[in-house]
TrEMBL record:
InterPro entries: Hist_DNA-bd, IHF-like_DNA-bd_dom_sf
Molecular function in Gene Ontology: DNA binding; structural constituent of chromatin
Lineage: unclassified sequences, metagenomes, organismal metagenomes
SUPFAM superfamilies: IHF-like DNA-binding proteins
Annotated spans, Disordered: 1-29
Family matches, as Pfam families: Bac_DNA_binding
Name of the protein this chain belongs to: DNA-binding protein HU
Length: 44
C-alpha cells in the first residue's frame, strides 16, 4: 500500500441534503500491485 493525498471537496449532509459541508483534505491508503502479482496475472 501507499498513501495518496485526497483533495478537499464539497459534500452533502446525508441527514439534511440541502446543507453543503466542506470535506477537508486527507490521506488515503491505495493498493499498489507488486511486480510478482503483476507477472502472475499476466501469465494466467
Amino acid at each position: 500500500f501507499e498513501t495518496r493525498e485526497r483533495a478537499a471537496r464539497k459534500g452533502r449532509n446525508p441527514r439534511n441534503p440541502q446543507q453543503e459541508i466542506d470535506i477537508p483534505a486527507s490521506k488515503a491508503p491505495v493498493f499498489k500491485a507488486g511486480k510478482s502479482l503483476k507477472e502472475a496475472i499476466n501469465e494466467a
